[in-house]
Specification:
- The chain is an all-alpha fold and 177 residues long.
- It folds into 2 domains: 43 residues, no CATH class; 107 residues, AhpD-like (Up-down Bundle), CATH 1.20.1290.
- Helix content is 63%, strand content 0%.
- It has 9 helices and no strands.
- The radius of gyration is 16 Å and the shape is globular.
Length: 177
């Protein structure tokens, strides 16, 4: 149970109110985790700018990383959100469960990406050489590597915020592994 109330639009800064309005238009609601970021006058905008920045990874590839990292960090909120987003990006329920485990038996390249994301997260950036070699052998580039590591950091921030404040999950719950 959350020890933090989810702030309403009226309880956040004018800057965050405008962001809430944009989220309402784009997503249809303000996800509770994003509302929690709005306790800070800057964190929500900074997070959305970083998360929405250009990347060499496509949306579907980003979800591979998001699912693997959120599983390692045991973030119930992010697992629920990224299960829903993963489905929107074309992954099946079975594929999402595999991705959460850092695997993708259905796609060699995505398997290397999921394995790398899991390994980086579990080892706090001290990546196993064999995992990194496999990543490059699967066709990923050094640019992809840096973007993947950046995405691991991005997702870890959200995982840590939610694991600390325990925002109420406002997405369908992710199934247990």
């Amino acid at each position: 149970m959350s020890t933090f109330n989810i702030p309403s639009r009226e309880e956040v800064s004018a800057t965050n109110q405008a962001i809430f309005d944009n989220l309402e238009k784009q997503v249809g609601f303000v996800p509770n985790l994003f509302a929690t970021y709005a306790y800070s006058d800057n964190a929500l905008k900074n997070y959305l700018d970083f998360a929405g920045a250009p990347s060499s990874l496509k949306a579907k590839e980003k979800e591979v990383v998001n699912l693997a990292v959120s599983q390692v960090n045991n973030c119930e909120y992010c697992l629920a959100a990224h299960t829903a987003i993963g489905k929107m990006n074309g992954f099946t329920d079975e594929q999402i469960l595999e991705l959460r485990q850092g695997q993708a038996s259905f796609d060699t390249k995505l398997n290397a990406l999921a394995s790398l994301a899991k390994n980086i997260t579990e080892n706090r950036g001290n990546t196993d050489a064999a995992v990194l070699t496999n990543y490059f052998e699967a066709g990923w580039t050094k640019e992809n590597l840096i973007d993947t590591i950046s995405l691991v950091g991005d997702k870890t921030i959200s995982n840590y915020i939610n694991n600390t404040v325990q925002a109420e999950v406002d997405f369908p719950a992710a199934p247990s592994l």
